[in-house]
Amino acid sequence: MTTPIADFVSRYADSGPIRMHMPGHKGIGADCARDLTEISGADELFHPTGIIAESEANASALFGCRTLYSAEGSSLCIRAMLYLAVRFAAERGCAPVIMAARNIHKAYLTAAVLLDFQTVWLPPGENCLSAPFERDMLETAYQRADAKPCALYLTSPDYLGNMSDIALAADFCRRHGMLLLVDNAHGAYLRFLPAPCHPTALGADLCCDSAHKTLPVLTGGAYLHIADSAPAVCHDAAKSAMALFASTSPSWLILQSLDRCNALLEQSFPAQIRAFLPLLDRMRQRLTAAGWALCGDEPMKLTLQPKARGYTGTELSDILKKSRIYVEFADADYLVMMPAPCQSEAELKHVCDVLCVLPKREPITECPPPIAQPVFGCTPRQAMLAPHETLPPAQCVGRICAETALSCPPAVPVIICGEVLTMQAVNALHYYNVNECSVVVR
Predict the structure, then answer these.
(1) In this structure, what DSSP letter does residue 122 have?
(2) In what order do the strands lie in the sheet with 335-337?
(3) 410 is a domain residue
(4) Which of these three, 237, 266, 295, is where a domain ends?
(5) How far apart are CA 117 and CA 95, in angstroms?
(6) What are phi and psi of 197, to 5 degrees?
(7) Residue 219's domain spans which residues?
(8) Do residues 340 and 416 share a domain?
(9) Residue 323: which residues within 8 A CB-CB, separation 6 or more?
(10) pLDDT in tens, 281-290
(11) Quick check: 188 and 213 in contact, CB under 8 A?
């Protein structure tokens, strides 16, 4: 498979150019020689006709749908997906209403502020990171909505590695004339498993992947996928949607990384995954035999529930750091690790060795407080644009949240801007160590 972006940049950098263009480093310094701007022949990300168009066509062939590049992560793609859903509603003469699971990324809320659409929230799960659903839950939420949603928005896999039934959700959306939007930030590799289970293969209309999370791509590299069967507006307005929220100066280092990844995905990566999955299965078996509780069904993620063995996730993370093991995420209840096929069996064994020698303790029985179904005093847009004041959470009961409270990672909100804070919400803030809250001035 061709790598037109990387090849163009290599030819340019090797030609000894006099750089009378941005950026200001002029190619001097580590990696700077391959960092460009939209010079002649280099193409434009949001109006591509040359090397970027060719590279995106290569990616599209690999993913089996129309695939566009983002150099600003899945956050850009999330906003673009939601913009396209709003355009879809406008074409049908409907109000912009989107049904969403509660464990959305904060980019969903910034899009809600910018685009001013309404959200019908599905009932929350037992914590803010996961939001399981069933068909009856979707039907009930749809029937109770004052204005019928034009789209369903899901996060799958979620941050803990739980995967939703995308095929069920796609069938629900088809029956109601809705779009299915999936934040698949953690699942770009799902297309290349022995049994592919990428959302676009299961019926999603629009889907975003953070390529950098699970593929050999620089941080910030991402994809927006559009199913061939998606409504015409999703195809016609896709580049405009990306350009609306994006910088006019995308990173050419990231674009080259996405470009080079195509060749790997076509050639060696599927075989690497097939060889790596049994190693992860053996790692899970060893950890389970040693008494560690695991959760989630995403193939390439290891999520421990360490309280069952007497540790908090944050405590366990600190222990692992002493052995030069740095995890993706840890809080009181979970510890998330994201291995990749480029890692050796020796590295996986080292992680297991460190975990398996830790002494068992009395289980910790404290559970996170349940996440309440939010009650809103105003829209996210009204809340975020209103005058704010910052107070301790205990003084915020009955007040309207002005800015979403979250930690990053995982950038999933504990409470949502526009939500009226209850004592249950305040308890959740305390549990997740959120010590101050921004609320709308009365």
Answers:
(1) P
(2) 294-295, 302-304, 335-337, 329-330
(3) yes
(4) 266
(5) 8
(6) -140, 35
(7) 4-266
(8) no
(9) 350, 354
(10) 999 999 999 9
(11) yes
Those residues whose C-beta lies under 8 Å from the C-beta of residue 287, and which sit 6 or more positions away, are 294, 302, 304, 352, 355, 356
Q: Is 39 exposed, middle or buried (0-12, 13-18, 19+ CB in 10 A)?
A: middle
> 142 and 10: one domain?
yes
pLDDT digits over 215-246, tens only?
Answer: 999 999 999 999 999 999 999 999 999 999 99
The DSSP 8-state label assigned to residue 152 in this structure reads: E
Q: How many domains does the structure of the chain reveal?
A: 3
Q: Which amino acid is at 44?
A: E
Distances (CA, A) of 131 to 145, 182, 338: 19, 13, 21
338 by Cβ neighbours in 10 Å (0-12 / 13-18 / 19+) ranks as middle
| Residues 321, 192 within the same domain | no
Give Dmax over CA atoms of the chain in angstroms. Answer: 67
Q: Quick check: is 271 in a domain?
A: no
**Average pLDDT rounded to a whole number, residues 304-323:** 96
In degrees to the nearest 10, what's the CA dihedral of 403, 405, 409, 411? -60
- Residue finishing a domain among 200, 231, 266: 266
Q: How far apart are the first and last CA of the chain?
A: 60
